[in-house]
Amino acid sequence: MDWVERVTGVRRWARGGERAPHKPLLLLYALGHFQRHGDVPIVYSAAEEHLVRLLREFGPPRTTTPAYPFHHLTSDGLWEVRTADGGASPGPRVGALRDTGAAGQLTGELVRDLRREPRLLSQLCRAILEANFEPSLHEDICVEAGLDLDSAGAPVGRERRRRSQEFREQVMVAYEYQCAFCGYDGWLGGTAVGLDAAHVRWWAFDGPDEVTNGICLCALHHKLFDKGVLGMTPARQITVSAHYIGRSAAAQGQVTALAGREVGRPQNAFPDVADHHIAWHAHEVFRSPARAA
Ligand SMILES: [Zn+2]
Question: Do residues 144 and 51 lie in contact, with contact meaning Cβ atoms separated by under 8 Å?
Fold first, then answer.
């Protein structure tokens, strides 16, 4: 059984570039639960609050319920759901899942292989993360899902790594090693430090490793861009989510005050970020509405 293929196949639930990481997030949560508690079933009503938080934090900026993945993941052969009296899953309705004492767990076959091959769990988690989320979010998701991954997980392919290094290099030069949001730059021993080449449309969702899909951001603004706190308009103005709260002078100066400011442009030998990638980020990642500038 190729479990890596099976768990990454789950993301095909995402249609037309829409981000639907509900099932992958539930799967990560279930793998974290397995790591800590073995194959003890996850009771829906007990896990609901935690799953809501996971979806709100890392899911798309749309209202959603964990009842959908809790039931629908059963169709992928990785997860099964039983009611308290041993019946089949009552379907994707919150009330029914709560009232019947529904509980889910990884399938027996997967549990058997996870026990047989100790490195499999980390490999699966890394594959799910890589297939669904930008790298800047991987560590936070592991913490929230209760996962402790060993470093022996599946490495990214050599081709992929080479391409992403070229991407980084091109974006850095295009933006002259400066954060396009705040202008930060910094060097240590001849190497730029604290700067990233961020994807606008996520690599996991067909975002290409091209300058038209890249932007140079400092570490803080990269993280906030991937979490949907910061975004940009087609007119290249920075947007700040109204859901973002930061009262300190530092938070206001480094984040809130950016609303409406112009995004730094690449030097003119390089193309600007493509409009359709900006639109994807605005729809799939940015937590609207934006604050008034
Ligand atoms: Zn910055």
Answer: no
pLDDT in tens, 181-228: 999 999 998 899 999 999 999 998 889 999 999 999 999 999 999 999
Burial zone of 219 (CB within 10 Å; 0-12 exposed, 13-18 middle, 19+ buried): middle
The pocket of ion ligand 1, defined by CB under 5 A, consists of 179, 181-182, 184, 218, 221
Could you read off the pLDDT of 38-83 as tens digits, one per residue?
999 999 999 999 999 999 999 988 888 999 999 999 988 899 999 9
> Ligand 1 centre from 237 Cα, in Å?
14
Span 119-133, pLDDT tens digits:
999 999 999 999 999
* pTM score, whole prediction: 0.84
Structure tokens at 102: 């529904």
Tokens standing for residue 281: 């980020």
CA of 185 to the centre of ligand 1 (A): 8
Going from the Cα of 182 to the center of ligand 1, the distance in angstroms, rounded, reads: 4
CA separation for the pair 202, 184 (Å, rounded):
23
How many Å lie between the centroid of ligand 1 and the Cα of residue 59? Answer: 24
Three-state SS for 55?
A: helix
Residue 278 corresponds to which amino acid? I
Angstrom CA distances, 181 to 47, 159, 238, 243, 281, stand at 38, 30, 7, 19, 16
Cβ atoms of residues 142 and 134 within 8 Å? no
- Sorted by where each begins, the domain ranges of the chain are 3-145, 166-284
Q: How far is the CA of 178 from the centre of ligand 1 (A)?
A: 8
CA 275 to ligand 1 center in whole angstroms: 21
